[in-house]
Amino acid sequence: MGVVGVSSADIVILDYGSGNLRSAQRAIEHVGAQVEVTADPDRVLSADGLVVPGVGAFAACMAGLNSVNGPSLIDKRLAGARPVLGICVGMQVLFDLGVEHGIETPGCGQWPGVVDELTAPVLPHMGWDTVEPPSDTRLFAGIENQRFYFVHSFAARNWDMDTSSAIEAPAVTWAHYGERFVAAVENGPLSATQFHPEKSSDAGLALLQNWVSSLA
Length: 216
Description:
Layout: E1 10-14, H1 21-30, E2 34-38, H2 41-46, E3 49-52, H3 58-67, H4 70-79, E4 84-87, H5 89-92, E5 95-100, E6 103-106, E7 111-117, E8 125-130, E9 147-152, E10 154-156, E11 171-177, E12 179-187, E13 190-193, H6 201-213
Parallel strand pairs: 1-2, 1-3, 3-4, 4-13, 5-7
Antiparallel strand pairs: 5-6, 7-10, 8-9, 11-12, 12-13
C-alpha cells in the first residue's frame, strides 16, 4: 500500500447496515485519519468528515439509511458545510431516484437525476478502469491517469444539475462502460465516487488522502 499520511482529521463512517465498512475504515486509517464506525447522531454531525458507504441494492441502502435518519443527518451536515463522502451505492443514494428492476426508490435528493441500469454487453461492470476528471478536480489531484476499482450494474448516466453564475459548478468525473456514466462528483462539501477507493490500491489511498487533507 501507499505512503501513510499524517492527519488529525476525525472521520465517522455511517453504520446503517451496509457491508464493507471495515475495509473503508482500514483504508482511511491508513492515510492517517482517526476513524469511528457509528450511527450515533452526535458523532455523525460533529466529525470533521462523514463517509457514507454502500453496497448492494439502492432500495436496501435507502431503507438502512432511513432507519438511522441518515438523509436528515447528511442534510444537516451539508447545511453547515460539513464534508460528506459517498462511496459506490453511497454515491447513488445521493441522487433523486433509483430504478432497479422496475422498482423506483426515492434517494436523498442532494443531486437531481436518476440512477438506473447501465447499457452494456456484460453486467456488472467489475474491475479496473480509468476515469475522466475535470481540470479543476481536487479529489484526483496527482492521480488523474490512474485506474480505480468498480463493481456495479447501475449508475447515474446523466448530470442535470443547473448552477447559477454565483454558485461554483460541481466538478463531475466521468467513466465509460458500454456508455458514459458519472464516476465521481465534487460539489462543495459533498463528494462521492462510484468506484471503491478502499479497493483501488495506491490510487484509491491517494484519493482518500486528498479528501482527508481537504478537511483541515
